[in-house]
Design goal:
The two termini are about 30 Å apart. The protein has 5 helices and 9 strands. A hairpin with a 7-residue loop joins strand 6 and strand 7. The N terminus and C terminus are likely disordered. The strands form 2 sheets. It has a 7-stranded antiparallel sheet with strand order 1-9-8-4-5-6-7. The protein has about 210 residues and is α+β, with helices and mostly antiparallel strands.
């Protein structure tokens, strides 16, 4: 019972700290949650992934929902994030496939940022998490490079699963600049979170090791 109380207190503390932190998204937000704007371009990598994995890109028929964050679900987030951060060796698509961008599951045990995201997303779905709460998100990382993370929508705010850190942080504590992500209503529709005005389209090939 004491262990459960400590975990619950940790989750509440993380959310509370997020509410006191400046945000990097340029759209409307209440700090605990990101709020998407208008429709955005679909990343080329997602279109290619869907061509290769059509059954994984079907629009869900269930109603939109968020995940209830409790001791069990918080433990699953930590476990899944750490599991794939350790299991997948970082390598660029150029080095592995000879192309700049290739979104795929990490079948070779190697991959870059979006491959980590896809594996974590698949594992959480397998554990019963709703697809509408698991949103692939394109960001600018702390080094200024294109990057992809998994944003997890819960009843206590939104958290980020990132191959660059083993910590599961509230989105507003992540230090990332949020650009676009999947719609919770339809995974094949992408929505703006912020705009990098005057910046060309970029790839999401960040492979930094966890910090």
């Amino acid at each position: 019972m004491r262990r459960h109380s400590v975990i619950a207190a940790l989750v509440v503390g993380l959310v509370a700290s997020a509410l006191a932190t400046p945000v990097l998204a340029s759209g409307s937000t209440d700090l605990a949650h990101l709020h998407a704007g208008q429709s955005s371009r679909t990343p080329i990598g997602w279109s290619q992934f869907c061509d290769d994995n059509p059954t994984d890109c079907r629009a869900p028929r269930s109603a939109q929902s968020v995940m209830r964050l409790d001791d069990r679900s918080w433990s699953e987030l930590l476990t899944v994030n750490l599991k794939f951060n350790q299991a997948i060796a970082p390598v660029t698509d150029q080095d592995q496939f000879g192309v700049i961008e290739n979104w795929s599951y990490a079948k070779t045990g190697k991959g870059d940022c979006e491959d980590y995201v896809l594996e974590k997303r698949r594992e959480l779905i397998r554990r019963g998490w709703p697809l509408s709460a698991l949103l692939i998100t394109v960001v600018i990382d702390k080094e200024g490079g294109g990057h992809a993370v998994l944003t997890v929508v819960t009843d206590r705010g939104e958290f980020v699963l990132d191959n660059q850190t083993d910590k599961v942080l509230p989105w507003s504590k992540s230090g990332l600049t949020f650009i676009r992500r999947q719609s919770p209503d339809n995974q094949n529709v992408w929505q703006d979170l912020g705009r990098m005005l005057g910046r060309p389209e970029f790839v999401t090939a960040a492979i930094n090791a966890p910090r």
